[in-house]
Amino acid sequence: MDPAAHSAPPLAPSLAPVELTGVGRLFGPVPALAAVDLRLESAALTLVVGPNGAGKSTLLRLLAGLLLPTTGLVRYAGRSADRLGLALHAGRTYLAHRTQLYGDLTIRENLTLAAALRRLPSTTLDPWLDRFDLRPVAARAARTCSRGQSQRAALARSFLGDPSLLLLDEPNAGLDADGAAALHAALVAAVDRGAAVVLATHEPQVFAGLAARTVALDAGRVVSVHDAGAAR
Amino acid sequence: MSRPGFLAAVGLVLRKELLLERRTGEATVTALLFGVLVLVVAAFALADAGAEPAMVAPAAFWITLGLAANLAVVRGWTRERDDDALDALRLAPIPPAAILAGKALGLTVALFVVELVLAVPTVVFFRLPVPETAAWLVPAALLATFGIAVVGSLFGAMAIGGSAAELLIGVAVYPLLVPLFLGVVEVSRAALQGGGWDAVAGWTVLLAAFDVGVGAGALWLFRPLLEE
């Protein structure tokens, strides 16, 4: 079954465009992000690149709502996070460096919990278990799975429910060739159905064909924005 | 994509807590082993002190439970810290208070199981008579357990990222729980000495009031607590 076919049209509320205006974030006295102005469009994949410590993960955690900005505003489809409330969470998913899985729950139980928390029917899981080849490990505790298998499960959770804003931090970490291909296909499908995808990576060449825009960060500041036009 | 209501979200978090605890036994086993050890030592130390069992056993039991609860709280929040699993809950479209409520109810169940098991060595080692009026202990014990679980869960969330979680939880939680422990020890003494509802009513109501006040405060405080 093709998850993209299964999942269209998008069910989640549209959160794009996402507009950041003068967004900054301090950790103590240290600025992790400073005066970031950015617009993230729907139906487009935005790559965020930069060296270690550039602020990529901070930017994604901020967009995910796990961090609050010290300065500036983030607006989702013209509305503030406070105004959107839980509707914002319903339309947005975030894959972090760590997989956010409960090690003593099975892969299926972890995904079932994620689906239930979004009131998605359990049948929503099956296409994603297939897409990321998770059926062989679905009954295994997450802590017994390899890094790559756990990453696939975390990816499947991120795509569950067709979020309109997908935030992915190094999503290809630990993936083999099949996993990377599955990720690529899922990203194409997400963009095609109108999702705004923000993807932080140290390997921009892997996603270059998909990206509509590449944002380079350094020392917490946007140092360049490159639009790829319609190329994909 | 939609979102569950508050009670449904609490139910989902609670179900996850119980599933994990049933599978690993981390919180209950740790608390039980510690509790049995402390109770045995206390019973032998106090055996020749000449004190009436119904007077000393409740204090020993609830002090033990309070210390064991600290271990259970730490275990319960460690699993949220591992692999940043808590972030998955924070990212879900559920009220943050539902996370606290679900975790506190899960801890209440785990601690109540610990209490039921620890009651046996308490009765045996303290040679404690168990009159019919001991049944009045049950509502008070449930209220006290819920109060411990709510306060413990709230401060567990605060301490989760720190390297001295046990110390932080202990320092912050125990002073807050003083009225609760006084209340449940007094109810336990009265019930074990044959007192009826009249003898336990005042303290039981105080425990209920404590739970309502602390519970409401904890639910209100939890969201800003999670914000970074």
List the SSEs and their pairings.
The complex is a heterodimer of chains A (232) and B (228).
Chain A: H1 3-7, E1 18-27, E2 30-40, E3 44-49, H2 56-64, E4 71-76, E5 79-80, H3 81-84, H4 86-90, E6 92-95, H5 107-117, H6 125-131, H7 147-159, E7 165-169, H8 177-192, E8 196-200, H9 204-207, E9 213-218, E10 221-227
Parallel strand pairs in A: 3-8, 3-9, 6-7, 7-8
Antiparallel strand pairs in A: 1-2, 1-4, 4-5, 9-10
Helix pairs in contact in A: 5-7, 6-7, 7-8
Chain B: H1 6-24, H2 26-46, H3 53-81, H4 85-91, H5 96-125, H6 137-159, H7 165-192, H8 197-226
Helix pairs in contact in B: 1-5, 2-3, 2-5, 3-5, 3-6, 3-7, 5-6, 5-8, 6-7, 6-8, 7-8
Quick description:
The complex is a heterodimer of chains A (232) and B (228). Chain A has 232 residues and is α/β, with parallel strands linked by helices.
- Please give the count of helices of chain A: 9
Number of helices of chain B: 8
Largest sheet of chain A: 6 strands, mixed
What's the helix-strand series of chain A?
HEEEHEEHHEHHHEHEHEE
Overview of this protein structure:
- The complex is a heterodimer of chains A (232) and B (228).
- By secondary structure, chain A is of the alpha/beta class.
- Chain A has nine helices and ten strands.
- Chain A has helices at residues 3-7, 56-64, 81-84, 86-90, 107-117, 125-131, 147-159, 177-192, 204-207, and strands spanning 18-27, 30-40, 44-49, 71-76, 79-80, 92-95, 165-169, 196-200, 213-218, 221-227.
- The relative contact order of chain A is 0.22.
- The model of chain A is unreliable at 1-11 (pLDDT under 50).
- Chain B has one domain (6-226).
- Chain B has eight helices and no strands.
- Chain B has helices at 6-24, 26-46, 53-81, 85-91, 96-125, 137-159, 165-192, 197-226.
- The longest helix of chain B is centred in the middle third of the chain and has 30 residues, at 96-125.
- The two termini of chain B are 26 Å apart.
- The chains are: A alpha/beta (232), B mainly alpha (228).
- Chains A and B meet through helix 4, strand 6 and helix 5 of A and helix 1 and helix 4 of B.
